[in-house]
Every structure is written in C-alpha cells, then in structure tokens.
Design a protein that fits this description.
Putative pilus assembly protein, ATPase CpaF, TPR-like_helical_dom_sf, signal
C-alpha cells in the first residue's frame, strides 16, 4: 500500500512539475511576443519616417501579407506608397484600410489625401463629405481647402484655409498654399501678404520665396523682396522675375534681370543662359 502511495506522489510531483514548466514556457512566449511587437512597432515607425520609401513599401507589403488582419500594417503600406510618390496605388491601399474593421475618420482623410495627389478631386470631395463635420483636424481642413480651390470655389477655399490655420502651430505650408491660390486667382496683393507671412514662419522653403516673387512681379514690382536667401536662391529668384517681366511685355527689364541672374549664380546657370540667348535671338 505504501508503495502505491509513493508512486502516486511521484506521478503527482511529475505532473505538477510539467504544469509548472508549461506555465513558465507560456510566460516566456508571451514576453517574447511582447518584445517582438515593440520591436516591430519601432521598425514600423522607422519605415514610415526615415527609411527609403521603396524599402518601406516592400516591408509593409510583405508584413501585410503575413498578417492580413493587421490594419496598422495596411496603413503603413498606404502611407509608404504616398511617400514613394505612387498615389494611384496608395488610393487602392487606403480604400482597403477604410473598409477594414477598426478604420477611423483619419483613415478617410488619408484616402482623400491620396486621391488629391492622384488628381482624383471629385472622389476626394466625396470622401471628405463622408467624414462627420465634428471631426475637425488641420489635415482635414487643409485638404478641404485644396478641393475647394480645384473647384474654384474661392469662398469655401478661403474659409477652409482660415480654419486650417487655427488648427496648426506650423502654418507656413498652409500659408504658402493659400498664397498660391490667391496668385492663381489674380489677387496678387493678397498673395504677397500671405506668402510674406509664410516665409516669416519658415524661411527655408524656396517654393514660397518663388511664389512671392511671382506675386510681386505680377504687380510690376521687379525688385527682390527683403528675405533670407543664399546666392543660388537669389539667382533663381532673379530668373523668375525676369521671365515674369518678359511675359508682361517688359522685355528690357527682363533681359537685364537675366544677365544679373547669370552673374549672381555661383556656377553656370544654364536655364537663365538659355533664356537670354533665346531672347537675344528673337530681338536680334
């Protein structure tokens, strides 16, 4: 009898040890899984920010195929396609995201952004209209302004630009967009004001400087604005002014500005040289 009791104890002890071993292994597996998720999240962040866009697309496409129910990976693929300047493919992937369980209004904004980049303005308008008006973000209203601009609905565009400005601490980009919108409408003074504000907020963006010079040149002001610029930027802006002057019939002024641009550029300024030769050939 005592023999069977000992055997029972041994078997019971073995089972207990096995159970402890299984529990310990499960705990280890869970911890490893948590570490893997953290590592993967960090890698995804890298892929979405500093990694080569093409590599990011490949990473998220591969990871998404392995985990088709992971909406974060599908989002990563869609966003990476935008970064890779492949907007038509991005639209397809953002549509998939928007249809997945767990999709948000921000995903619809991402879809609208891709649609605008793909020149699908009507589709972008429909997507934005499907978002509740209570969802108010800077990106949403910036896109609303761009869509209104495309439709030449200036009143709505101005209202959306103004709303977007109130929702960001970095307004330079939207000020530049709004200024360019005014420029295309022929409101050159309004464009000059907004573009000057944009450069005041961020003087590193050459596009805003070029747009400002266009707005001033359209008003017959062929002097460079007092803004920060390096020598190469100065030469390019002089070239823009020259072409603006020529387009408006001020050929002599344009010719002088082309020569100044060529002299100012620290290297050979092929584009301005070609413009000057063409102008002299026409006049000669």
């Amino acid at each position: 009898m005592r023999h069977w009791f000992i055997v029972s104890l041994c078997i019971g002890g073995t089972l207990a040890l096995s159970a402890c071993g299984a529990n310990d292994q499960s705990s280890v597996d869970r911890k490893l899984q948590e570490v893997n998720v953290i590592d993967e999240t960090n890698l995804s962040d890298v892929m979405l920010t500093v990694a080569d866009p093409g590599e990011a697309v490949n990473y998220f496409r591969r990871s998404g195929l392995e985990n088709p129910d992971r909406i974060d990976l599908q989002r990563g693929l869609a966003a990476s396609l935008v970064r890779a300047k492949r907007p038509h493919e991005a639209v397809i992937e953002w549509r998939k995201v928007a249809a997945m369980e767990g999709a948000t209004n921000d995903d619809k904004v991402g879809l609208a952004d891709a649609q605008i980049r793909a020149n699908e303005f009507d589709a972008a308008r429909e997507t934005l209209n499907s978002i509740p008006p209570t969802y108010e973000t800077f990106k949403r209203y910036r896109l609303e302004a761009i869509v209104a601009d495309a439709a030449k609905d200036w009143k709505k565009a101005d209202a959306f630009y103004e709303t977007a400005l109130g929702l960001t601490l970095s307004p330079a980009g939207v000020l530049n967009n709004w200024g360019y919108s005014k420029l295309t409408r022929g409101d050159f003074a309004g464009a000059e004001r907004l573009l000057t504000d944009s450069i005041r907020q961020d003087n590193s963006v050459f596009t805003a400087k070029n747009n400002l010079v266009l707005a001033r040149g359209a008003q017959g002001n062929y002097t460079l604005p007092v803004i920060p610029m390096d020598q190469t930027e100065r030469a390019k802006l002089l070239h823009t002014l020259a072409l603006t002057a020529i387009k408006q019939g001020d050929v002599k002024t344009g010719q002088a500005l082309l020569k100044e641009a060529i002299e100012t550029h620290p290297q050979h300024f092929e584009e301005a040289t070609r413009s000057l030769r063409a102008l002299e050939g026409t006049n000669g």
